[in-house]
UniProtKB/TrEMBL annotation:
Protein name (Swiss-Prot/TrEMBL): Thioredoxin domain-containing protein
Gene3D superfamilies xrefs: Glutaredoxin, Tetratricopeptide repeat domain
Signal peptide extent: none
InterPro entries named among the record's database cross-references: Thioredoxin-like_sf, Thioredoxin_domain, TPR-like_helical_dom_sf
Membrane-spanning parts: none
Pfam family, one: TPR_20
Annotated Thioredoxin domain residues: 8-100
Listed PANTHER family: GEO12009P1
GO biological process, one term: response to stress
Organism: hydrothermal vent metagenome
One GO cellular component term: cytoplasm
Any one GO molecular function term: protein-disulfide reductase activity
């Protein structure tokens, strides 16, 4: 079989050929679904995407439970969506209910359909989190050689450079990546982190800024700079707290008809920080969004 994309609408008439015969060559993922079901549509989209990513490595067979009732009875399908994994004309696994993409990938991994570079990414992430950053960098370098088009590997490397404060290397590598990679969730996260790190490199130290504020709590530039530096050090909640204080000070200025600090820069920076955190720190982002909304209401 060639490296084609195998996505089929399966009926009772073609089930034997498409599902059973082909399952002796490659795994078949059969989705028992209803065209009216939103969860079924979601799973269908996920496995269609994966069938394109892993072209030629598995068959995605979609079976409408209403139109192909006998197939549903044959496989004892009681609820939809239902995923049935078929190998060598035998059922290897059945799963009911909505799946995430990560869970769908685990199902495929169970039938030996996976991306080697992504496995190496997971190993590298574990090494880095456990303090063996050198081994993580070696693994990611090998992963890039394994799959040069996998921009997520490069973004992982950017994140490690950020974590070990190799900012020049992080900026240089991120700058070489295509625009689409920078617009992904991970791309936005590392781009945001680098933006704050680059800004923080031009500011006084955190201890110096705190000292300035202890002498004059109304020094808005110092508070703004402190929020930037705290963000660069991953102290996100403290940074948001400083920006909210600064935003409140702006509101008090408005009541006195003074000009707000840098035309609402605190609010804009808070929004930027919240958007940066949404992919990787959703709970912190949610709380910050609520706090900001409360102040704006």
């Amino acid at each position: 079989m060639s490296k084609d994309i195998y996505i089929f609408e399966v009926t009772e008439a073609n089930f034997e050929q498409i599902v059973l015969e082909n399952s002796r060559k490659i795994p078949v993922i059969a989705l028992f679904m209803g065209s009216w079901s939103e969860p079924c549509f979601v799973i269908s989209e996920i496995f269609s995407k994966l069938a394109k990513e892993f072209s030629g490595q598995f068959i995605f067979a979609k079976i409408d439970i209403d139109e192909q009732a006998s197939l549903g009875k044959q496989f004892k399908i009681k609820n939809i969506p239902a995923i049935t994994v078929i190998q060598s004309a035998e059922v290897a696994l059945t799963s009911e209910g909505l799946l995430t993409e990560a869970e769908a990938r685990l199902i495929l991994k169970g039938v030996n359909v996976f991306n080697v570079a992504d496995e190496m990414r997971e190993q590298a992430r574990s090494k880095h989190m456990n303090g063996d950053t050198e081994a993580a960098i070696i693994l990611l370098s090998q992963a890039i050689q394994q799959d040069p088009a996998n921009v997520d590997v490069a973004l992982d490397m950017v994140q490690i450079f950020i974590d070990i404060k190799q900012i020049e290397q992080a900026n240089e590598l991120l700058g070489r990546l295509p625009a689409g990679a920078r617009q992904s969730d991970m791309g936005k996260s590392v781009t945001g982190q680098l933006t704050f790190l680059n800004l923080a490199s031009e500011k006084p130290s955190i201890s110096r800024l705190k000292q300035i504020l202890s002498n004059n709590e109304n020094d808005k530039q110092a508070r703004f700079d402190l929020a930037i530096c705290l963000t660069a050090e991953y102290e996100y909640e403290q940074a948001i707290e400083q920006l909210l204080i600064l935003h409140q000070q702006d509101e008090w200025q408005d009541e006195r008809q003074d000009e707000p600090f840098q035309s609402g820069a605190a609010r804009e920076l808070a929004i930027t920080l919240i958007n940066m955190l949404k992919p990787t720190q959703p709970e912190i982002a949610r709380r910050a969004q609520q706090q900001l909304s409360n102040l704006l209401s």
